[in-house]
Amino acid sequence: MAKFHITVTESFQDNFGKLSPKEQALVERKVELLSENPSHPSLRCKRVKGKSGYFECSVNMDIRMIWQYEAGRIIVILNVGHHDVLKKY
């Protein structure tokens, strides 16, 4: 199966920069896994409640990524951060 193309928003870039180097490395591995298989069990992906078209996945027990699909095989990662990042969506 072909990989998904990953793009990120400025919000993602800003919040990624606030994470520790260890957390950034975890995010990078999960982004790669997301591009290969958004349904991979270790991502624990699910829809964001009350928001059509938005998804969340786990980087670890505290850090989440918020993303959505775009036309074709494109995933736009909107944000990343500690669990409270979900409150913005």
Describe the structure in your own words:
The protein contains 2 helices and 5 strands. By secondary structure, the protein is an alpha+beta fold. It has one domain: YaeB-like fold. β4 and β5 form a beta hairpin. The model has no long low-confidence stretch (mean pLDDT 92).
Task: Give me the CATH fold name.
Answer: YaeB-like fold
Question: What oligomeric state is this?
Answer: single chain
Main sheet: strand order? 1-5-4-3-2
- What's the CATH class label? Alpha Beta
Structural class: alpha+beta
Number of domains: 1
Bin the helical content: 25-40%
Task: Choose one word for the global shape.
Answer: globular
The major beta sheet can be summarized as: 5 strands, mixed
Rg result: 12 Å
Order of helical and strand elements: EHHEEEE
**CATH homologous superfamily placement:** RelE-like
Mean pLDDT: 92
Number of strands: 5
Whole-Å distance between the termini?
Answer: 30 Å
Summed up, the helix count is 2
Top keywords for this entry?
five-stranded mixed beta sheet
Please provide a brief summary of the model.
The protein is of the alpha+beta class and 89 residues long. It is 28% helix and 30% strand.
